[in-house]
Amino acid sequence: MAPAVLRACCNAVKWAPVVFITAIVAWSYYAYVVQMCIFTVDSIAEKVVLLLLYHPILFMFMWSYWQTIWTKTGKVPRDFFLAPTVAERLESETNEEVQKEMLKQLTKKLPVQTRTMSGFPRYCEKCKSVKPDRCHHCSVCSTCVLKMDHHCPWVNNCVGFTNYKFFVLFLGYALLYCFYVALSSLKYFINFWTSGSGHGMERFHILFLFFVSVMFGISLISLFSYHLYLVCKNRSTLEAFRAPVFQTGPDKDGFSLGRAANFREVFGEDAKGWFLPMFSSLGDGVSFPSRLQPVVSYDTMGSTPSVGDGVTYPTRTVDQDDDGLLASRQRWMEEGGDDFEADTGYENKAMDMA
Q1: Three-state secondary-structure class, residue 69
Q2: How much is the CA Rg of the chain, to the nearest whole Å?
Q3: N-to-C CA span, the chain
Q4: Which of 115, 113, 225, 104 is nearest to 172 (CA)?
Q5: Which of 269, 303, 309, 351 is an S-S bond match for 258, by CB 3.0 to 4.6 Å?
């Protein structure tokens, strides 16, 4: 019974940041719509305009937040998993050359371009699978996540291939929401602050609403700008801190195909869907075009259109390097002291400013 209770408590704690954000948004709705627009604003026309602009922004903000929270993380295909007996034999083998030969055979037909620092395919001892390109193991979710960016406590979910677009839109619409609320309440904030007019609770809600929206808006500027930069460079947060390793060595820009193609890889080809929190990212999350290898040769989902810079976007690509080495000797920031994948410190620092 004790382990079950402990797990329930841990799950409750994990949801605390989401509950906090939801509570802040619910209170801001009451403060803005009821206390400001209904009780404070005198002009009917102004009330209507403020509310007509407010609700679409709130809707897009909450829709993208919902999608980020509840979209399941991308799972590694079965092709990459080792049979239990094979995994046991691989991990128990003490001869490194034998391990190399085993991984050489296991990864021969798998579409992997990235390597460990020693130059061999990456292997996850936790999941017993070869890791696809840009895939990493999350110690919080206890699974390998496709194109993992980071584990975000504010959404209680991993941000990766399946929901990265939603996460970026969530940051953008949250920033827009904060700035809209701050700008539209500025006049009443100044009036209450300088003159002291207004009833106690009404005055408190509007003053606090302005302060909260400004502080959250300022904290979101750096985070949203940073992720726009990552989109333009076609990097995940993990890759920005440690470059992926290709056959030619580490290269932070290895997956960059130019700004236009990088943007489309995340947001899709159809401009009408760019700003809607609906999945439109290109590819399957298993393999990605790179500057070194833009050719399709491993296709399970059909080909996709060409994107920018004259580079054909592949569904999956096959690596020509058949060398192998058990990646536990070169674990890349997963499990342990260097575990950045579950460390959202950069995110927490930004949010702490609020």
Answers
A1: helix
A2: 24
A3: 39
A4: 225
A5: 309
